[in-house]
Amino acid sequence: MIISLLFTFVFLIFQIIRLDQILFQLPLKDSLPFLLLWFLFYFSYMLPTAFFIAFAFQLFELKEGKKLHVIQSFGIRPINLYTKSIFMLFPVIFALSFVFLTLNEEDIGFVRRQLTLKYYALLITSIPSKSFQSFGQFTLYVEKRDGNTLEGIFFKFNEGVVVAKKARVEAGTLTFEDGSLLTQREGKTFATDFKVYKLSLNRIVSDDKKTSSREYLAGIFNALSTLLLMGIAYRLIWFIEHHHSFYYAVGLASVLYQLVLLLLKQKL
What digits encode the pLDDT tens for the residues 126-182? Predict the structure, then answer.
């Protein structure tokens, strides 16, 4: 479990670097649920690999310390260490299967998307008067701001440009008043005047890919593969004699296993 915690912590550092502005500028009540869900999913995801590494190292140390011979002298076959370990891990395997059936990368992406929307809304409602602000896929200029009400707005996003006298930010929606929408099609610029134009921030935040059955199948395979991985660990200790070769073999097997999981998500 310590190995799984270490792997998850390393991945979490990269995630925090990627989302540092969002996580640290939003209130804890908004960012904490994302961090908890993210940690639960990836801790569970790395747990089978962590069990494989820990079991392999422990068996190898028993072998190198001649303790396996001592165990055999008491009439206990080394294979019993594997079977008993598997029996003890059945509750963990069941729990992992439940996690992967109820939580997937789409859920993590959905929560991350909601964080991004709240962050964008926060930036819009805190922009100083007479200043530009660029974030994500849009650029905003505000002549004057009074709370959530903006005046003299220039707003550029991926579908065009909005120029309006006023705008309000409410529940993730920008409501423009008395302005024009400029769009380009086939090399021509079109202007559409409006009294009220509502733009949901969802339209300017990229969608995460939808989770298919491949994600669920790969998750269940990952949970059940604990049995296979520990079997591989048991076999490795009898074929490899030297420490360095054993460490390289375990590391290579771990990397190959992660590649297999990635291919399963793509090819199943």
Answer: 888 888 887 767 888 899 888 888 899 898 887 788 999 999 888 778 899 999 988
Judgement on whether residues 94 and 178 belong to the same structural domain of the protein: no
- Residue-number span of the structural domain to which 79 is assigned: 2-104+211-267
Nearest-angstrom CA–CA distance, 150 and 166:
5
Could you report how far apart the first and last alpha carbons of the chain are, in Å?
A: 29
pTM above 0.70, yes or no: yes
Distance, in Å, from the CA atom of 225 to the CA atom of 217, rounded to the nearest integer, reads 12
Q: In 65-104, which ranges are continuous DSSP H helix?
A: 67-73, 79-102
Residue 109 in domain: no
Per-10-residue mean pLDDT for the chain, 268 residues long?
A: 67 68 78 86 89 87 74 72 84 89 83 84 84 80 86 86 88 86 82 88 64 74 89 83 84 90 74
Asked whether residue 6 falls in the same domain as residue 97, the answer is yes
Same domain membership, residue 90 and residue 37: yes
Euclidean distance between CA atoms 181 and 159, whole angstroms: 10
| Count of domains observed in the chain | 2
In a domain, residue 119? The reply is: no
DSSP annotation of 74 reads T
pLDDT at residue number 178: 92
CB within 8 Å of 34: residues ≥ 6 apart: 23, 108, 111, 112, 115
E strands of the chain, at which residues?
A: 131-135, 138-146, 149-157, 160-170, 173-185, 188-200
User: What Cα–Cα distance (Å) separates residue 19 from each residue in 8, 12, 125, 194?
Assistant: 16, 10, 20, 36
Position 27 scores a pLDDT of: 81
Query: Token pair for residue 36?
Result: 């908890």
200 and 240 both lie in a single domain:
no
